[in-house]
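In response to the reviewer comment on reproducibility (Comment 2.3), we provide here a single inverse folding case reported in full, input and output, so that an independent group could reproduce the run without further information from us. The structure tokens appear first.
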């Protein structure tokens, strides 16, 4: 499978620059489907629930938990090198609450939102205070798997921290 991916990537790079997007990223985590994504500029006015976006974990507008965790060595250094690709689960005005079976957005259970107390190394995971209502410049980011690291741990993200929209080119 790795060979197939390398062959596909090589073939894609052989195309004229007019065909390929200016920016791409390879997602190898399970938070969203693994694969190659085209990165387009983020435009707040066109952002919608369900859309995949990129969050820079070490950017000045990134959630404090991410910035401080990177600075303290709590999170992997690689998190500062590549964008976090996450799905917008809620936007301005949405109310996010916590329940035993996961989080709710305006009363509807959010898939893959049950919070863990600790990570795989036994370290306590942070959690924002619930309930909360998203402000005019905030979004709630989610993962497509239970083990993802997303807003259930770092809280709402400011739209200023989102720098691109991720569009799948090839996924597993």
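Designed residues, in position order:
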């Amino acid at each position: 499978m790795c060979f197939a991916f390398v062959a596909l990537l090589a073939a894609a790079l052989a195309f004229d620059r007019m065909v390929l997007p200016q920016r791409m990223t390879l997602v190898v985590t399970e938070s969203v489907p693994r694969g190659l994504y085209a990165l387009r500029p983020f435009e707040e006015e066109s952002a919608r629930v369900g859309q995949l976006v990129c969050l820079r974990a070490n950017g000045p507008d990134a959630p404090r938990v991410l910035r401080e965790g990177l600075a303290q060595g709590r999170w992997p250094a690689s998190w500062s090198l590549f964008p976090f690709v996450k799905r917008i689960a809620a936007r301005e005005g949405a109310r996010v609450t916590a329940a035993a079976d996961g989080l709710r957005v305006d009363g509807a259970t959010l898939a893959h939102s049950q919070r863990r107390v600790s990570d795989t190394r036994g370290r306590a995971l942070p959690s924002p205070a619930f309930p909360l209502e998203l402000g005019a410049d905030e979004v709630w980011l989610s993962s497509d798997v239970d083990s993802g690291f997303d807003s259930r741990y770092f809280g709402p993200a400011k739209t200023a921290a989102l720098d691109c929209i991720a569009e799948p080119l090839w996924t597993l």
